[in-house]
Each structure stands twice: as structure tokens, then as C-alpha cells.
Amino acid sequence: MINSYLLTALRNIIRHKGFSLLNILGLSLSMAVCMLIIVILVDQYSYDKQHLEKHQIYRVQSINNMSDISLNRYASTAYPLAEELANNYPFIEEAVIVLRTSWEEASILSVDDFVDDFIKFIENSNVIETGFSETILKKESMILGDIATFLVLYEALIPGSGRPPQKGVDSFSLIKKNGEWKIISILNEIPSEMNPIPVSLMD
Fold first, then answer.
1. At what angle do helices 111-125 and 80-88 cross, to 10 degrees?
2. Which of 50, 174, 199, 200 is positioned for an S-S bond with 148, CB 3.0–4.6 A?
3. CB distance 168 to 189 below 8 Å
4. Residues 6 or more apart whose Cβ sits within 8 Å of residue 131
5. Where are the domains of the chain?
6. What pLDDT, on a 0 to 100 scale, did the predictor assign at position 126?
């Protein structure tokens, strides 16, 4: 009986090629979209599952509204914001700082821990006595109308700390407003094997 059903279906497909193709493509597309939606929902609901009160966890983002063209969103904020939220907003129970210490690792610090960690870094590195050196190795700029981007390759060194010099890339985004250039974002990246120094900044 199954063979009879299959044979009948095949004959209908051959007899009505256009209609069959339209139905098959429509069904395939709808199933693909449905599976994509499921994958996105599963991914979204998989965050912070290890926390009992995950519904109370929020990440604060920055929104740049200086541009008349569009709003830019960044998954980062200034460090003092954590202290401001913790001290002046009673409905916020706790604010922490997620500090990326390397490409693969990140540290979660309270406001006090962040300040203490910074103080220990200054004291242990003898920055007060030895100073801090940062040398600009190369710069690249791109200006298009009222927007501009600058890439800066630098090498940072704390003399006497025992740490080898570390290279990094700063990215500055600017926009011209009322005839003046204004910085709207500053991003930093430490080069690695996965993210090497851009060719345009190489010697």
C-alpha cells in the first residue's frame, strides 16, 4: 500500500511540475525559517542558566546618540557607572564589573574589588617610581564626509615590572558635528594569533 501511495505522489509531482515545485520550495523555506527561530530562541534562553536568579541579571550597554544618522550601541560602559548604579539606585541589589583580562579570560569584580585590584597593580608594578611608557608605532586614518576612523598601533611598557612590552591597537571613531570633530567611541584590542595586527599597521 505504501508503494501505491508513493507512486501516486510521484505521478502527481510529474504531472504538475510547477505547482509541486512551488509547494516543495515553500515547505522547505518555512521549515528552514522555523528551525532558525528555534536555534535563536534556544541560544537566547541558554544564557546564565547556572544562576538561580538569572531573570534579575542585566547587562548595561552604551548608546551613542551624537550621530544624526544612526544610534550606535556598545556592549561596554565606563567603569565608574557600576559604582553609580550600586550607590544611587536602590532597586539595584549589586553591580559588578566584567573586565576582560585577555582574549580568552575575563574577571568579574565588584566595585571595591576593581579599585583594590587597580591599586595593587600600581603598587606592585612600581609605576609611581618607574613611570609608564607607551610608544605609538603606526597610525592609520580613514575619513569619509563627517565620519572618521583612526587605528593606532602602540607598544606599552612598565619599566622594572618584569613584564615584556605589549602591543595593542586602539580604534577611535569620530563624527563631525557643528564643524568640530568629536570622539564617539574608543575601543582597544590586544593582538593574538586569532586576531593578528592588521596588515595596514604592519611595517
1. 150
2. 174
3. yes
4. 159
5. 2-44
6. 66
Is the CB of residue 108 less than 8 Å from the CB of residue 96? yes
* Model confidence at 40: pLDDT above 90: yes
pLDDT of 152 over the 60 cut = yes
97 grid coordinates: 564589573
CB atoms within 10 A of CB 189: 14
Q: What is the 3-state secondary structure (H, E, C) of 63-80?
A: EECCCCCCCEEECCCCCH
**Helix (H), strand (E), coil (C) string for the chain:** CHHHHHHHHHHHHHHCHHHHHHHHHHHHHHHHHHHHHHHHHHHHCCCCCCCCCHHHCCCCCEEECCCCCCCEEECCCCCHHHHHHHHHCCCCCCCEEEEECCCCCEEEEEHHHHHHHHHHHHHHHCHHHHCCEEEEEEEEEEEECCEEEEEEEEEEECCCCCCCCEEEEEEEEEEEECCEEEEEEEEEECCCCCCCCCHHHCC
Angle between helices 17-44 and 2-15 (to 10 degrees): 110
Span 41-55, average pLDDT: 82
